[in-house]
Amino acid sequence: MFKYIVAVAILAAAMWPTSVAGFDRHDLNQVVTEGDCQRCDLTNANLSDLVLSGANLEDAFLANVIFLRSVLVETNLSGAYLRGANMAGIDMGGASLAAAELSDANLTNTNLVRANLAGATLSRAVLGGANLEDANLSAAILIEAYLTDANLLGALLGGAELAGADMRHVNLTGANLTGANLTDADLAAADLTGAILAGATLTDIDLSDSNLTGADLRFALMNGAVLDGAILCRTRMPDGGFNDTDCDSRADP
Questions:
Q1: Are the beta carbons of 115 and 122 closer than 8 angstroms?
Q2: How far apart are CA 62 and CA 217, in angstroms?
Q3: Cβ within 8 Å of residue 135, ≥6 positions away
Q4: CA dihedral 17, 23, 24, 30 (to 10 degrees)
Q5: Residues 6 or more apart from 194 whose CB is under 8 A from it?
Q6: Rounded Cα distance, 70 and 57, in Å
Q7: If DSSP codes are grouped into helix, strand and coil, which group holds residue 36?
Q8: Among 36-40, 158-162, 233-237, the least confident range
Q9: Is the pLDDT reported for residue 142 higher than 70?
Q10: What share of the chain is helix, strand, coil (3-state, %, to 5)?
Q11: What is the pLDDT of residue 34?
Q12: 166-186 confidence digits (pLDDT tens)
C-alpha cells in the first residue's frame, strides 16, 4: 500500500509544471521515498493520503501544503514553515513542531496528543475541536487563534501568548498556564478544573460560565475579567485566598 501511495505521489509531481506547483519535485520524491528531507521546499504541494510517520522534515518550507488524510505520527517538523497549511483532521500524535510557523494553518479536529509545539507560532490558526491533550505549548504564540471545543487536558501553556484567542468550551483541566497572556481571550464555558494560571495576565478575559474549581489564580492580573456564572470552589484567588462560593451548590464538591 505504501509503495502504491509513493508511486501515485511521484506520478502526480511529474505531471505538475514546476511553475504551477511551486515546489521542488526532487524534494517531493525524496520525502515520499526516504522520509528524510530537512529544509525541503514543498511550498504549495499536495501531500494528502501519505503516511509520513517518523519522517524528518525539520526546517522544511511547507507553506500552504495540503496534508488531508495523511498520517504524521511522531513526525519531526521542528522549525518548519507551515503557514496556511491544511492539516485538518489528521493524526499528528507525538509530532515535534517546536518553533514551527503555523500562522493561519487549519488544524480543525487534528490529533496533537503529546505533540511538542513549544515556541511555535499559531497566530490565527484554526484548532477547533483539536485534541491537544498533554501537548507542550510552552511559550507558543496563539494570538487570535480559534480553539473552540479543543481538548487541552494537562497541556503545558506556560508563557504562551493567547491574547484575543477564542477558547469557548475548551477543556483545560489540569493545564499549566503559568505566566500566560490571555488578555481579551474568550473562555466562556471553559473547563479550568485544577488549572494553574499563577501570574497569568487575564485582563478583560471572558470566564463567564467557566469551571474554576481548584484553579490556581495566584498573582494573576484580572482587571476587567468577566466571571458571571463561573464556578468558584476551592479556587485560589490572586491574593492567595480561597474562594469557595459555589462549593455548596455542587453535587460532588
A1: no
A2: 39
A3: 112, 113, 114, 115, 116, 117, 152, 155, 156
A4: -110
A5: 173, 174, 213, 214, 215
A6: 14
A7: strand
A8: 36-40
A9: yes
A10: 10, 15, 70
A11: 75
A12: 999 999 999 999 999 999 999
